[in-house]
Design goal:
Layout: E1 2-7, H1 12-16, E2 26-28, H2 44-52, E3 54-56, E4 62-63, E5 65-70, H3 73-90, H4 96-114, E6 122-129, E7 135-142, E8 155-157, E9 166-168
Antiparallel strand pairs: 1-2, 1-5, 2-3, 3-4, 5-6, 6-7, 8-9
Helix pairs in contact: 3-4
């Protein structure tokens, strides 16, 4: 089985989200967190989280990118229980029992999304409100280079001799 994990390509998530997810946290789209939101409420960091933030199941932080990773059935079951707890404690479900079915559905959605996608593929998310106020989600993928499990995005170089590295792209 496969699932999504948060990934950071740079430090921008810390600046754009109210709470940024740490790297390597299990993630879901999490659009339910915006149920009932209006276009007028989509400002600042809330707008950024709405527009393209995956929701971490560990910290409830947001991440711009998620990467496909392997997961066991036991880990998926644990994520379902964890999400049911979050739905009850933080998102208005009346009790854990009522939260279990939607949690299972959300976890199943992500495993289905990742099923035919290679490990290390990056996902991005674009979330919008349509004309009737319904939330729409669109996913895009960025494949890892062939034969390379992790691609170097940049390297740190010391170009002024003072020991303080600077990013070079």
């Amino acid at each position: 089985m496969k699932f999504l994990k948060t990934i950071r390509l740079d430090a921008s998530d810390e600046a754009v989200f109210e709470v940024a997810a740490a790297p390597d946290e299990w993630a879901i789209p999490g659009g339910f967190a915006f149920a009932g939101i209006t276009a007028g409420e989509l400002t600042g960091k809330t707008r950024q989280a709405f527009a393209n933030g995956f929701l971490s199941l560990q910290s409830l932080g947001r991440s711009t990118f998620a990467s496909v990773a392997g997961i066991t059935a036991e880990e998926c079951d644990a994520l379902t229980r964890q999400l049911a707890g979050h739905l009850h404690a933080s998102f208005g479900a009346p009790n854990r029992a009522a939260a279990e079915a939607p949690a299972r559905d959300e976890i199943a959605f992500v495993t289905g999304l990742c099923r035919d996608v290679p490990v290390n593929t990056l996902f991005t998310l674009r979330r919008t409100l349509d004309g009737s106020g319904e939330i729409r989600e669109e996913f895009r993928t960025i494949a890892a280079p062939r034969g390379v499990p992790h691609a170097r995005v940049w390297e740190i170089v010391d170009d002024d001799g003072d020991g303080a590295g600077r990013g070079a792209g």
